[in-house]
Amino acid sequence: MDRGQTIPTNDRTRGPEIHLERHHLSTRAPYEIVTDNGSQFIARTFKDFCKKWNIRITYSTPRYPQGNGQAEATNKTLLSNLKKRLDARKHRWSEELAAVLWACRTTPHKATHETPFSLAYGLEAVIPTETSVPSLRRMQCPANVELNEEMLRDHLDLIDERRDQALIRIQNYQQAAARYYNSKVKHRRFHIGDMV
C-alpha cells in the first residue's frame, strides 16, 4: 500500500481500518470530518484516530441531508451532470460516475477560479489526451523519478498560498452575491392589523 487510505470493514463495532504506513505526500489530515451517526463513525477506533490526528468530528442530523450544505451542493452538480450523460440509459449510471467525477474535479469553479484537483494536489491534473499527444507540460516533465518527486514537493510548498487565495476569492464572491441579493430586496413595513 503506497498511500494512506480507508478500508471499510463489515465489523461495525470496530470502525474503519485506517492505514497510514506510507502516507502519500500530497495528502494531509483534514481539519474536520462531517459524518452521520453510523456505527463505524462513533466507534472508539475512529474517535482515537481523529484525536491522534487532531481532526474535529462533526455529526450531522440523521435523515436530514440538508444539514450538510456542501455535500448537497456537490450531489446536485453530480446528479445534473449524470442526467446529461445518461439520457435513456439511466440504469447504467455507475459506468458514467467516474467520468462525471473527473469532470467536476478538473473544472475551475466560479468562486475560486481553481479546480478542486489543483487545490487538493497543488497542480493541474494531466488529462488523458495529454498522455498521448505531446504537450509543453509533458515535455517539461522530467524523466527522472526522483527529480519529478522533488518538483512535486516544491509545488506542495506553494499549495497553502494557492488555497489562501482561493479562500479570499470565495469570500469576495459571497460578498458580491450578498450585495446583489440585498439590492433586489424590497423593504416592507408592517403595522398592527395589516394582512400578511
Automatic annotation (TrEMBL):
Give one GO term, molecular function aspect.
nucleic acid binding
**Record-level GO BP terms:** DNA integration
Q: What highest taxon heads this organism's lineage?
A: Eukaryota
Matches recorded under InterPro entries: Integrase_cat-core, RNaseH-like_sf, RNaseH_sf
By what name is this protein known? Integrase catalytic domain-containing protein
| Organism whose genome encodes this protein | Microthlaspi erraticum
Entry-linked PROSITE patterns: INTEGRASE
Spell out the PANTHER family in the cross-references.
Answer: RIBONUCLEASE H
Specify the Integrase catalytic domain's residue ranges: 30-124
